[in-house]
Write a structure and sequence with these properties.
The structure is a homodimer. Chain A folds into two domains: about 1-95 and about 260-345, Isopropylmalate Dehydrogenase, CATH 3.40.718.10; about 100-260, Isopropylmalate Dehydrogenase (3-Layer(aba) Sandwich). In chain A, about 40% of the residues lie in helices and about 20% in strands. Chain A is built from eleven helices and twelve strands. The first copy, chain A, has a ten-stranded mixed beta sheet, with helices on both faces. Chain A has a two-stranded antiparallel ribbon with strand order 6-7. The two termini of chain A are about 20 Å apart. Chains A and B meet through helix 4, strand 6, strand 7, helix 6 and helix 7 of A and helix 4, strand 6, strand 7, helix 6 and helix 7 of B. Strand 7 of chain A pairs antiparallel with strand 7 of chain B. Bound molecules: 3-isopropylmalic acid (2 copies). One 3-isopropylmalic acid sits at the interface of chains B and A.
Amino acid sequence: MSRIAVIPGDGIGQEVIAEAQKVLAVALPGYESTEYDLGARLYNRTGEVLPESVLSELDEHDAILLGAIGDPSVPPGVLERGLLLKLRFEFDQYVNLRPSRLYPGAPTPLADVKPGDIDFVVVREGTEGLYTGAGGNLHTGSAAEIATEESLNTRYGTERVIRDAFERAKRRRGHLTLVHKTNVLVHAGGLWKRTFDEVAAEYPDITTEYQHVDAAAMFLVNRPHTFDVIVTDNLFGDILTDIAAAVTGGIGLAATGSINPDHTHPSTFEPVHGSAPDIAGQGIADPVAAISSTALLLEHLSRPDAAAAVNAAVERELAGRESGTKIRTGEVGDRVAADVAGQLS
Amino acid sequence: MSRIAVIPGDGIGQEVIAEAQKVLAVALPGYESTEYDLGARLYNRTGEVLPESVLSELDEHDAILLGAIGDPSVPPGVLERGLLLKLRFEFDQYVNLRPSRLYPGAPTPLADVKPGDIDFVVVREGTEGLYTGAGGNLHTGSAAEIATEESLNTRYGTERVIRDAFERAKRRRGHLTLVHKTNVLVHAGGLWKRTFDEVAAEYPDITTEYQHVDAAAMFLVNRPHTFDVIVTDNLFGDILTDIAAAVTGGIGLAATGSINPDHTHPSTFEPVHGSAPDIAGQGIADPVAAISSTALLLEHLSRPDAAAAVNAAVERELAGRESGTKIRTGEVGDRVAADVAGQLS
Ligand SMILES: CC(C)[C@H](C(=O)O)[C@@H](O)C(=O)O
Ligand SMILES: CC(C)[C@H](C(=O)O)[C@@H](O)C(=O)O
């Protein structure tokens, strides 16, 4: 039986995760879940974000389903670093996966794109680069202050995520784009490019391409249909995936997995959107991204049929929406769960 | 008399700079120019990119007008670092300025935007951050390889570019957005944010805003009209300005200035596009971006009327183009120069 740790979190996180669980109940029948009350409430009550004992308990699960964290009462960065990034590093979630598909009915800001035109995934490195916290400040607050940030990259870390990306490209349309900034970041760029080229030699059927991050950012806007799989470092991936979300209708619809492909620790699945305190508690949050994140979870737990059913149901849900109609959180979950149940019965 | 160093460079750089000079001849009558043959040819002949003696000569000028550099015969990065970045650092060009306007007739990939909707400038720091080259590799080529890149930031460097951005916001619509990634890059982000907030206190009439770089990248795509002036670090600016170019019709139309606002060394003005070897020598390159870069040059040399005339002429040139009509490089320059001449006579 699959054991899922559920972290609803703050604001609309609570509401959308309830719907994701409705869908999971039919897509992964009999799964066991444990709920963890992490986020702003715990922090404000105890000053702790992720107690060691909770981290150990989470580690006993097959996957983590997370809603959203963040509240104006908590200083910016505390929960993000203390929970989200902590999980990525502690659980060695080195593949940060963000699929981008333009669904029928999704409000893309682009002209001249049709549903189906945009369909790619970004494989973002999740445990290295500028996200390690290395760096510091000297003479803080004075006119002489200096601040450094250090990007740390290993052959070990780049190779494993690049291999993962090649495997994904093999299962998709067979095209992989490496994104970095080798013309300026020569040290890390050199490592990434050499590792990429070496691994590429083992995948003669995958066509490969290299793009500088600035060019890739532009191409995601003016020719997003040319991408299949993108592999890139932690910070570049952070930026590119938000552009990807923008062109496919906004972060409101995007889902992400922070994945440990070796299953040595649980992986985290979540909607990309935040806790949206302004609309929390009203039952009007769109649970589609949270529901989509269960598809990534099912994929990771080797349930491709269930994952496909969820994706198909989400696609129908979005296609069936009339523009301007108000979302009712609970109704969306009911509709998608019923659709999934129908497909899997 | 203004002394302009002209570096046509490679490929279409030669062709578009000739047109920019036609326009400059009428917008800055009697300017003196010295041409420098830098780029792929010099490098392939001598192995040198920017000899010290040439650097000293360039330093004697009021501004540098650059076409484009780069050729398949030169290893990637050599000319970019050896010439473009070298000039930015040696000449202390700490304001990298990239105006983004959607002109009538420009081919934006966005739906639902009208000319005039998008009009902002990015003030990108040009002499610090991840562009200093700090970092290295260890155990290169082995399974144990590590690579680092260090972002170096000073109070001195952040404050001066932030002040410049506030001044520009004052001359525009009075809104300034700081972009960084303070929730992850806490060291550099802290310095940028504190410096920004301190300087902001001196500009009570400027409304300010902070955005994480991933959010800003998204907003540039789905609500670009909300920006007036953006100030950000070197690498974030590199990425954001390419998104900005994408939404305003592509890098083919964008111009940039690498500016030393204190005039202690010359500033460089150039089109954002590359040398496009595939279309070089055919007289079909669009010189509009090179011409727009002369407007930035004129602005920097305190010729606001001439700069406005060039911008107005470029706007008319683009508006007058029928979609699908082939560009003739020389004709565009002639038309714009004549228009500028008419305005200034
Ligand atoms: C919240 C933040 C720390 C996080 C990141 O930068 O990785 C987020 O932007 C993301 O993409 O998951
Ligand atoms: C060519 C390259 C070094 C340069 C940069 O990264 O700054 C370019 O992308 C730019 O934006 O001027």
